[in-house]
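Action item from last meeting closed. Structure (361 res):
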């Protein structure tokens, strides 16, 4: 009888694991649905806080205060949402960008985007590692969130670097703080006449230096519809740069590993395959699909809505996996890195905007 019982027990283990993973994914989906409703409340929406940001905050609160009540078998579902679902969702983010829109702002928009992204990544990484003594991943995540597209960039870099969740949480915190500040500060200085920029200049500056897409739209809409249109396109041009930047970062990380350099955990890297972020190539493919207008507009809208929900699930799962004690260790230094990057975005971004508009505008 025992010999018959053993196969049943061993066969039920994988089934229980699968059931636990599905329950974990369902839990994250329900959590993300609640977060989506919460982020739609007027006082949150008016702050430009996307469901992604609300999701990581709410997830972190749950993960640190209530996670003990969650079955351990659900952990694999949480991890799936924070890793594999994340890659798929970042890939589908490409349906929000089209080559035609980017062409509308032409060479000035592309030049501002490239200069801001490259300089911000370099300065943010250098300031984080050399001045603030942060580990490589935290410095890169903080710089990427500011340089490219806020929380979505943090998610994409987190997937490529395979870093720990609390490092992503710190980077997103920087996006929330300084991106929200920009929504109020940028329109104010324009209305006070402190920025001597025309409509094109305002669009280039707002779209080239504000963190999140929603924050760009929120800030520019307080200036003019024309500035909002230009700023949004410039911002989406920065989003497009996510693909080449991730490919370069993947090659850099792989070379450091192959050269046996010490990573941020203090262990020596081992030789491995090239860390190509395939989801970034999927992102680029879907940009092309969107540019060719292969999909009907309602289908694209539906896919974008589902993609936002999937990204919210990923952010919520990352929040659940985040531990406040880990954030405390590097919190002030990560925040200072974000402040340094923000100062560069304002000062350096203005200089880049003035220069590009004078030469190419």
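Sequence:
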């Amino acid at each position: 009888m025992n010999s018959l019982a053993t196969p049943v027990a061993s066969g039920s283990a994988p089934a229980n694991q699968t059931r636990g993973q599905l329950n974990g994914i369902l839990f994250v989906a329900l959590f993300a649905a609640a977060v989506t409703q919460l982020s739609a409340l007027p006082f949150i929406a008016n702050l430009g806080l996307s469901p992604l940001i609300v999701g990581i905050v709410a997830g972190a609160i749950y993960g640190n205060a209530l996670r003990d009540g969650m079955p351990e078998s659900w952990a694999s579902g949480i991890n799936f949402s924070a890793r594999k679902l994340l890659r798929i969702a970042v890939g589908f983010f490409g349906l929000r960008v089209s080559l035609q829109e980017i062409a509308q702002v032409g060479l000035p928009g592309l030049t501002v985007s490239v200069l801001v992204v490259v300089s911000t990544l370099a300065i943010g990484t250098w300031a984080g590692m050399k001045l603030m003594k942060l580990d490589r991943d935290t410095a890169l995540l903080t710089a990427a969130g500011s340089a490219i597209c806020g929380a979505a960039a943090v998610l994409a870099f987190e997937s490529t670097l395979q870093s720990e969740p609390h490092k992503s949480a710190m980077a997103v915190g920087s996006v929330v703080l300084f991106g929200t500040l920009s929504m109020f500060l940028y329109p104010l200085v324009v209305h006070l006449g402190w920025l001597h920029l025309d409509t094109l200049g305002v669009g280039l500056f707002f779209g080239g230096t504000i963190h999140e897409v929603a924050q760009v739209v929120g800030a520019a809409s307080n200036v003019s519809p024309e500035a909002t249109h230009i700023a949004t396109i410039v911002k989406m041009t920065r989003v497009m740069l996510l693909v080449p930047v991730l490919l370069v970062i993947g090659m850099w990380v792989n070379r450091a590993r192959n050269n046996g350099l010490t990573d941020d955990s203090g262990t020596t890297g081992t030789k491995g395959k090239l860390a190509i972020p395939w989801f970034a190539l999927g992102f680029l493919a879907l940009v092309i699909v969107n540019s060719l207008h292969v999909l009907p507009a309602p289908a694209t809208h539906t896919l974008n809505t589902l993609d936002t929900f999937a990204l919210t699930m990923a952010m919520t799962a990352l929040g659940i996996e985040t531990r406040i004690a880990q954030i405390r260790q590097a919190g002030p230094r990560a925040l200072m890195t974000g402040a340094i990057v923000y100062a560069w975005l304002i000062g350096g971004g203005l200089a880049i905007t003035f220069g590009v508009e004078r030469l190419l505008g």
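Note appended to the action item: Residues 1-6, 262-274 have pLDDT under 50 and may be disordered.
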